[in-house]
Specification:
heterodimer; A: alpha/beta; Rossmann fold; B: alpha+beta; 12-stranded mixed beta sheet; 30% helix
């Protein structure tokens, strides 16, 4: 390989076919005289502009039709050299860092010698070692192209905002499960908003046996094994549900607050008592109607109960998870849109309460397709306020434009799978921790189950990984009509 | 008892036959390798004026007249083999003792309405003042058992060697094609002028005579000519007549030892307003000459009045910049010759005024 050109932080490197460099590979451009080296990542591979190639190709097509048939008697065997030159490629590389005295700095301000520099591929383990991507809590994401493992540190996900995105069927949920069980393995508390009911069986292996996570996976199905009694609810949580999920107007909300306090003080905070109180309420008819309709919505959700024996306490699950590590899987598969919002409001409210009162230290929240249940104002809350409380969110989506720009700009880690749509790539490329060219050039060509990892977990050295398989009953596969087994 | 069976050959082009004499290419390879061994682990300077040297110098006679009455032609589509030969040479670079050149030849033939080709080379030579004579003689001797040129004449100047080696390969290819093709039209690049340093008269006569013996007719097209009639280039004096046609010339005589072995025509073979000098073996009867050109028009494709078979032969043997790079790569890798880039003196002294063509 030979250094050809440097423009800004883009390097152009001439590479020959035997050198076999591909998108995503890292190169070390070493200038021994300067005592420095550039670390650059290949973001695109193009044909080198070799003079005469066009003539070479044209002369095999005399009439624009079939190539002319013939024989080349080439006793000195020059043809392989012609092919070698013809197939030379130009590697477009992004400078990621400068290595000097075994220290990495994110600088690209110096120019290595074009004639004296040596260029060689930098293996992922070598790069990880240089970048000091190690730690006491390793999570193996998968294998890299050079057959090494990409290991990140769980602490690099701690206190961060993460996004897992890519087009349908490329392995996003699989990666989120991998991260989730790895965190649980390190005794972390994880809450998952499981939109498709695919996380509930993570305590089982593929062949249906219990695995090490069995006792740590707490699957909660709203309306079934996950109900709450009004008495257990804090007024702020209920008000959040009424205002944000059920859109209760301000005047009615004030009236409800008064009613709730009355019932709480009298020790009669039950669904029956609340319904009775609304029916007997002596106020504006519109207010009364508004409260009655919201009350019926709460009843219809089947999420609330007066039977304390039925009520599963989220708090209890959280406490168990706090000690041993565990995941609370909130299965939203069979819940309606409104009910889903009620449940999410409740869970988030409860989490904030628990974190505010230091009952919980911190929680990792995994939210699949969050735009389907997360209210508008929660997006900002999650990246600002809730983060300070200790809720560290990972968004998983195949529609990157449903996540607000602000989220991308503040995301610490992005796990990017294949996207072919320019618009989707454009959205993701707004993330602050990555440059647009890298996202657009590499993500477009990622094969299924391959992920471009960007951000803090890889010390800002984007890495392509084939996400490792898990012996977990994932249940995330699409149900097919033309199934081979049927 | 051995019965010798005589089978009449079909009118089919079988170039080259396994039995063909391959001594020249073999000697080319041997000489090439031998010459390159002499420069192992030396340095060489890239050619700063890499021009393809494939045109022949032509002395201009003053007696030429062009007949104004065109000879009209009618295309004949009767299936005829069209075969063409061309060679090319390129200077790759210079060493401290000589030059490194590459030579390649191509035969193209049109058979069953499809073009096919055979390319020989590239052959790479390191030519020095010391080895040029032996190299040329060895190559000449390996195929042309008779050496026609006188000793001092046949050893050219170092800078003429690329052309001489290319001419040698070209004559050999022409001789081969004349031998193995039957009842075909053979297209040569250039003229049928002989008695020059590159083309001894006897050698060209032998080629033409072999071609005639096999029922072939040789047509030689010159891409450019300096022949003038009344001060005008003969290819510019085209009458207002529908193409295709030929214009005859008379009175063309060169000073000895240069001799013309063909009659010279101006050929305008399609509607393009372009014409070329066409030499036809003068021992071929006039009627057969006309018929040969008509069969050529009826069987080959013409672009800009130039036969496609010959155009392809030229294209296939010409070196592209990519190939020149590959040859440099070859000699560096296989023979350990290091490329050095000495400054171009023209550029150094005259800057942007020092470009080729302005020097």
């Amino acid at each position: 390989m030979k250094l050809y050109r440097k423009e800004g932080n883009i390097l152009q490197v001439l590479s020959f076919p035997s050198e076999n460099a591909e998108k995503g590979d890292y190169l070390l451009v070493e200038d021994t005289d300067a005592g420095k080296a550039l670390i650059a990542q290949v973001i695109d591979v193009q044909f080198a502009a070799i003079p005469g190639v066009l003539e070479e190709l044209l002369r095999t097509l005399p009439d624009g039709g079939e190539p002319i048939q013939g024989e080349d008697i080439d006793p000195l065997e020059i043809a392989p050299h012609i092919t070698y030159i013809q197939d030379a490629s130009l590697l477009i590389c992004k400078i990621r860092a400068t290595l000097e005295n075994e220290m990495l700095t994110p600088s690209s301000s110096w120019l290595p010698s074009r004639s004296q520099s040596t260029i060689k591929k930098l293996s992922v383990p070598a790069l990880m070692k240089l970048a000091k991507v190690d730690g006491k809590l390793p999570i193996i994401l998968g294998g890299t192209k050079d057959s090494s493992l990409l290991t990140i540190d769980a602490s690099a996900i701690d206190g961060t905002l993460n996004i897992i995105t890519g087009k349908k069927g490329c392995g996003k949920s699989h990666l989120s499960k991998l991260l989730m069980v790895s965190l649980v393995g390190y005794k972390a508390t994880v809450v998952v908003f499981d939109l498709n009911g695919e996380y509930g069986s993570l305590g089982m292996t593929n062949d249906g046996k219990r695995n090490m996570y069995y006792d740590k996976i707490h699957a909660l199905a709203p309306g079934q094994n996950f109900k709450v009694a009004l008495d257990q609810l804090h007024l702020n949580v209920v008000m959040g549900i009424l205002i944000h999920a059920l859109h209760l107007p301000g005047t009615s909300a004030r009236e409800f607050r008064r009613l709730w306090k009355q019932l709480k003080d009298s020790g009669k905070l039950t669904l029956n008592a609340l319904g009775e109180a609304i029916r007997n309420l002596n106020c504006n008819q519109h207010v009364k109607d508004a409260l009655a309709s919201r009350f019926h919505s709460l009843i219809n959700s089947s999420f609330f109960t007066d039977n304390l024996a039925e009520a599963a306490l989220l708090e209890e699950c959280l406490m168990r998870a706090k000690d041993q590590g565990g995941a609370i899987i909130v299965n939203l598969k069979s819940t309606s849109n409104i009910d889903r919002q009620i449940v999410v409001e409740y869970v988030l409210g409860k989490l904030v309460d628990s974190l505010q009162s230091w009952k919980l230290k911190a929680t990792f929240l995994f939210a699949e397709e969050a735009h389907l249940y997360l209210r508008e104002t929660y997006w900002d809350d999650i990246v600002t306020r809730m983060r300070h409380f200790g809720i560290f969110t990972t968004f998983i989506t195949n529609q990157p434009d449903t996540i607000k720009d602000g989220i991308y700009r503040q995301a610490d880690n992005i796990f990017l799978f294949n996207f072919t749509n320019e618009h989707d790539l454009e959205v993701v490329s707004r993330a602050a921790r990555v440059d647009a060219e890298t996202v657009k050039c590499i993500a477009r060509d990622l094969p299924p189950h391959h992920c471009l990892t960007l951000g803090r977990v890889v010390h800002d050295f984007p890495m392509v990984t084939r996400v490792r398989t898990l012996d977990l009953k994932t249940m995330g596969e699409t149900r097919l009509f033309f199934n081979a087994a049927s | 008892m051995v019965i010798e069976q005589y089978t009449v050959t079909t009118q089919r082009y079988n170039f080259p036959q396994p039995s063909m004499d391959t001594s020249l290419p073999q000697r080319f390879v041997e000489q090439s390798i031998q010459s390159l061994r002499q420069v192992r682990n030396q340095t060489f300077q890239l050619n700063q004026h890499a021009i393809q040297q494939d045109s022949l110098y032509e002395k201009i006679p003053m007696t030429l007249q062009l007949k104004r009455q065109p000879l009209p032609l009618t295309p004949r589509s009767q299936e005829t083999l069209i075969a063409a030969v061309d060679t090319s040479t390129i200077k790759i670079g210079e060493t401290s003792t000589g030059i490194i050149i590459a030579v390649r030849g191509a035969n193209v033939w049109k058979q069953n309405r499809a073009y096919r080709y055979k390319r020989l080379g590239p052959f790479i030579f390191h030519i020095t003042e010391d080895n040029k004579k032996d190299l040329f003689k060895a190559l000449e001797k390996s195929y042309f058992s008779t050496q026609y040129g006188s000793g001092h004449q046949s050893t050219p100047h170092l800078l003429q060697m690329p052309m001489r080696l290319a001419s040698l390969l070209e004559r050999w290819l022409q001789a081969m094609i004349a031998k193995v093709a039957t009842n075909g039209i053979l297209l040569f690049d250039g003229s049928l002028t002989s008695g020059t340093i590159d083309t001894p008269v006897q050698r060209m006569r032998e080629i033409l005579s072999t071609a005639r013996r096999h029922g072939n007719i040789v047509l030689a097209f010159s891409k450019a000519t300096s022949l003038r009639s009344n001060g005008y280039l003969i290819t510019d004096l085209l009458p207002e007549r529908d193409s295709p046609y030929l214009l005859e010339t008379t009175g063309l005589r060169f000073k000895p030892p240069t001799l013309l072995l063909g009659d010279v025509y101006v050929a305008r073979l399609n509607k393009a307003n372009l014409a070329f000098r066409l030499d036809i073996d003068y021992e071929v009867p006039t009627q057969d000459r006309m018929e040969a050109v008509e069969r050529l028009i009826g069987n080959d494709v013409f672009q800009q009045s130039y036969p496609e078979t010959l155009r392809l032969a030229h294209i296939l043997c010409t070196f592209t910049a990519n190939e020149a790079l590959a040859i440099q790569h070859f000699i560096t890798r296989k023979h350990g010759i290091q490329i050095i880039n000495r400054p171009d003196m023209h550029r150094l002294l005259f800057g942007s005024f020092g470009r080729e063509g302005y020097a």
